[in-house]
From TrEMBL:
One of its GO terms (biological process) is riboflavin biosynthetic process. Its EC number is 2.7.1.26, 2.7.7.2. Pathway: Cofactor biosynthesis; FAD biosynthesis; FAD from FMN: step 1/1; Cofactor biosynthesis; FMN biosynthesis; FMN from riboflavin (ATP route): step 1/1. PANTHER family: RIBOFLAVIN KINASE, RIBOFLAVIN KINASE/FMN ADENYLYLTRANSFERASE. This is Riboflavin biosynthesis protein.
């Protein structure tokens, strides 16, 4: 179940195992915590709950940081739900941020969620000025009747999995490496809009121009992708960039679906990035560009077939 608020008073929960966090990306580290929540809830005959926030606290408290999130709110909720937990999304405001950590524990964990156990990441802080610590939770748990489990960091190839590391990898175009930390392919959603028509008219390769809902696109380049349309995963090639051969200025996301014919205008698609094929570059002629596109399509087929 998904709840977009948690007002005071009798609520939907009888007894819970709870985790709390921003969960941007719902990466392998997050999924380790969520798996522990589900496991402990089953052992304790409780309801598993993930408590998160919208918008992301940094968007409210540090808007100048221009934090580029890995997931839209809808993507995050879907990924959390798929992990088997009830999702509670609390509206985050400056007033909410001013709640002292002790009050947050009493008001939300104890009174509204009826918490039996809190499962928390090893470095999580919460409450006003991040004054809430694991030690505080453990002390309050002894008094208020809940236990605390700490889940330590997940490492992949000696790198600690974190949302910030994944963002950095995507900004370098390292989508394979980012995908390993996510435990899935990085995906963005967007609606297909009318483009300039060069793909079909000039190059003979029709493309879907997407206006992405996501904050973060991988760096400019050509990618082998999977495109989710009506629940089906279709192979494709994506270009992120400005199409320098045509002297464009605007950054665009264009996708060509391999072996597909049809009208995609107005549809909402999800694009999953499997591998980066090359940098975007300027070509001396349309024929040279068209030949490279055909080579990109052939390489994408090989990459996607290999999995």
């Amino acid at each position: 179940m998904i709840y977009h608020s948690l007002p005071p008073g009798p609520g939907p929960f009888r007894r819970t195992v709870v985790t709390v966090g921003n969960f941007d990306g719902v990466h392998l580290g997050h999924r380790s915590i969520l798996a522990r929540v589900v496991h402990r809830a089953r052992e304790l005959d409780c309801q598993p709950v993930a408590l998160t926030f919208d918008p992301h606290p940094a968007k409210v408290l540090k808007p100048e940081s221009n934090l580029r999130l890995l997931t839209t709110p809808a993507q995050k909720i879907a990924l959390l739900s798929a992990a088997g937990v009830n999702v509670v999304v609390l509206p985050f405001t400056r007033e909410f941020a001013a709640i002292p950590a002790r009050d947050f524990v009493r008001d939300y964990f104890v009174e509204r969620l009826k918490v039996r156990e809190v499962v928390i990441g090893h470095d999580y802080r919460f409450g006003y000025k991040r004054q809430g610590t694991i030690e505080l939770l453990q002390q309050m748990g002894q008094t208020l009747g809940f236990t605390v489990q700490v889940v330590w960091a997940v490492e992949v190839e000696d790198a600690v999995v974190s949302s910030s590391l994944i963002r950095a990898m995507l900004q370098l175009g390292k989508v394979r490496e980012a995908n390993r930390l996510l435990g899935r392919a990085y995906g963005v959603t967007g609606r297909v809009v009318t483009g300039k028509g060069r793909g079909a008219k000039i190059l003979g390769v029709p493309t879907a121009n997407l206006v992405s809902d996501n904050d973060l696109l991988p760096s400019c380049g050509i990618y082998a992708v999977w495109v989710i349309r009506d629940g089906l995963r279709l192979p494709g090639v994506a270009n992120i960039g400005t199409c320098p051969t045509f002297d464009n200025q605007e950054l665009t996301l264009e996708v060509h679906l391999l072996d597909f014919t049809g009208d995609l205008y107005g549809e909402v698609l999800e694009v999953e990035f499997a591998a980066r094929l090359r940098d975007e570059q300027r070509f001396s002629s349309i024929d040279e560009l068209a030949a490279q596109i055909r080579a990109d399509m052939a390489e994408a087929r090989q990459v996607l077939a290999a999995g």
